[in-house]
Amino acid sequence: MKNETEIKELVREKYSQIASQSKNQNASSCCGATGCGEVYNIMADDYTKLDGYNPDADLGLGCGLPTEFAKIKNGDTVVDLGSGAGNDAFIARRIVGDQGRVIGIDITEKMIELARNNAAKLGYKNVEFRHGDIDSMPLFSNKADVVVSNCVLNLVPNKHKVFSEIFRVLNPGGHFSISDIVIEGELPLKWREIAELYAGCVSGAIQKSDYLSIIEEAGFTNITLQKDKTIVIPDEILAEYLSKEEIDEYKKGKVRITSITVYADKPSKDERNCCEPGSGCC
What is the radius of gyration, based on Cα positions, of the chain? Predict the structure, then answer.
């Protein structure tokens, strides 16, 4: 079993490869030495009809439309976790307008470079992208009105720490809307050791009930499932990783891989007194 540092390096390496390819390449060709890019985008929803959509920023890597459910308002400050090439950040920018602000955070330097180039092409002055871990965000406390994220938190080993960080950076009374992959039932043990499937958001997912419990433990209220969609992995992708016997066993099992979009509020009165990054408070 890989440790947290090794998993983060795996994710950084895989998404650096993806950042160097187009959406079509990711859909139709191999993005690494161990498997095909389709495993990354079979979960993606259609962004093309949303205001602010920019095709250069869409790498087909999401598993939902969190900005559609995030109750973002004009003038808000929005933080996008795992911002990639900027897809969700630019849609959020369309909503917050010139008076608002959008900050994207990503662990992959190549994604940050790609997103910054896309923002420059669009002429956005109030959208910025910062390199950093989302479990230790380069942000002061109580700075965001809304946090969004699309199919990213499942890639982070310490999900308790991520949700604690989300709580810290949100203003009292702020909220998040996050799309992510969760599971119900037990995945084949083999998948836990397959790098490509981890970076593709499958084997890094945790139980849905545990995911929601972590959110509650972090101090959030009004936890609401805004969307719940079953993910079906095609046989040809399963065959990249499992034998025919293992595929048959997987299909017989009571396993459901799900894309959820979950909403929650940070209470208006924050009694946790969270401190700044690096001080060990939260």
Answer: 18
